[in-house]
Design brief:
two-stranded antiparallel ribbon; 12 helices; mainly alpha; globular
Amino acid sequence: MNVIRILILLTAAALTGCASTHAKNPADPLESFNRGMYQFNDVLDKAIVKPVAQGYGTVMPAPGKIMVNNFFSNLDDLIVTINDLLQFKFIQAASDGSRFIFNTTFGVFGLLDVANRLEKHNEDFGQTLGYWGVGNGPYIVLPIFGPSTLRDGIGLIADNRPSKLRRVDHMRTRNQMFASKAISHREQILDQEKVLDEAAIDRYEFIRDAYLLRRKSLIYDGNPPREKYDDEENDTDTKKQQTPIINVPSAQDNAPKASPIGRNAAQHPFFAQQSFAPAAFEPRQALYPQDNVHKVWVAQRTGIR
């Protein structure tokens, strides 16, 4: 769809005037522009997209919503299969390709998920570029499409080329199908908004960090490399320079010591109740009732993968 290409090109042109803007996060050098675009998308969502999604969720019965979601999900399986092959994941390609063939043939063009025993994967060309070693590039908030990066924006254009929806000749029907897909996806995340509102001090920052963390997890198939922080390097250097000191045992030394959360967080009572599955990371999984200041920093610092 040419609309995607036009929106990305317009965004890239607008970004040239924001390149010198000072940013707090090195991954987001265009924060000033991105926050403005985020506000635009938020206004558009509250005025049009969200009310329509709420109406759709109210009117459409549950079986109907499932079939609509299955239909668009089946079309996505073709894109996933292509990217499986580009990443040399041949077993995944066999699974996703078989899902597409069986559901299209025996599932009434994907309305029924008859191949639900075959594992469904999540791959796109943005992940393929990451697999090939292409970096994220700057974080970008696209008009209508929302959070992305320069790499994922290019991937969005590439994934659109083989899309079956794009091949629908009748423009009105094609646009209606794209709109139906967007409304269906929007309706599925309505319940998550309350969690986001209660947890996020800064919605823009929360969504940005959650998006970047999830994308990194997807590229590494749920096992991203653990980053080494400056304070850890400083601690190591300090230990090397310290002179051993002989301490006289005291009563306090015999008292039980708490295990450091940063080294073994999974055994800590608070974190033991949380869900940290990077492969299925969603914003709600980064919520910490006792600390919302920097969700992603806490998740990464604990070393939970």
